[in-house]
Amino acid sequence: MDMFISLSHFCDKHGPRVLLVTQMNFNSSDNDPLLLPDYPLESYCDSCILHFPPVSTKQDIRSMRSVLTHHNHQISFVSTQYSSIRYQLLSSIIRKTFSEETMIYDMTPMIFQDDINKLNFVMGFKLHDENARGNERRYCLTFSIDSTDHLQSMQLLSANIDFIINGFQKMIGYIKQLRDVQLNTLAKQGQLDDNLTPIISTYLRGNKTKSSKNLTCLTNDKGIFVKLHKWNTFLLSSLYKKCHEKYERDE
């Protein structure tokens, strides 16, 4: 079963954008097709681009890989922003996610499944940012199963729903906690308005004077995307092992 996890964001300038996607490759090698050393960045602004800590002043990291061994079989878990093998699928998923009228950004889960977008479990959240439209930035963490077997996909999700919810809640809770600490620091320094309540009525009205801010800046954590990669890898590898063990028992 082909699974992947993505973090997406609604950019004020570019609309729905994938920030990071963690995918699996069961034929691990140095020529891993999921690894992308470089890709065009012209269409990204600071709020919708992936920021891994640079290994040097001359080189930016565009993808990150972890290799795990299960039953003498190596599996790659690769995180990047641009997916060369799932670009259209990911674009379709995030467009549907952010256009859904039922999408609530308070960590309430949403599930949708169809022939085009396959099966997706989504948890939305928002972070206060005075430089964003409506004073908030909206994000979605999504677990996806890329399979045409809708019944098997739903069975896998149903069997592991509590594990996925708990995993997403911990990661989002950590991000929101970092943002709260940063807001408190800025407030003490007098760099925030007294009223931190998002202005919902003005969300759809853009403000050209506001600047783009990345998740790294909002959380004051240069390693936030590395942590997302590691957490996604843990979730996907755990789910893979659970599925593999179930298959062996059924055999």
UniProtKB/TrEMBL annotation:
Gene Ontology biological process terms, A to Z: cellular response to amino acid stimulus; positive regulation of TORC1 signaling
Gene Ontology cellular component annotations, sorted alphabetically: cytosol; FNIP-folliculin RagC/D GAP; vacuolar membrane
GO molecular function terms listed in the Swiss-Prot or TrEMBL record: GTPase activator activity
Signal peptide: none
Protein name: UDENN FLCN/SMCR8-type domain-containing protein
InterPro entries, per the entry: FLCN/SMCR8_DENN, Folliculin, Folliculin/SMCR8_longin
Coiled coil: none
Domain named UDENN FLCN/SMCR8-type: residues: 55-251
Natural source organism: Henningerozyma blattae (strain ATCC 34711 / CBS 6284 / DSM 70876 / NBRC 10599 / NRRL Y-10934 / UCD 77-7) (Yeast)
